[in-house]
Amino acid sequence: ATEGPGYVWHCHLLEHEDNEMMRPYKVIPVIDSDLEIPLQDLLIILGLILIVVLFLIIRLKK
Question: Which are the contacts of 27, defined by CB distance < 8 A and separation ≥ 6?
Answer without folding.
Answer: 7
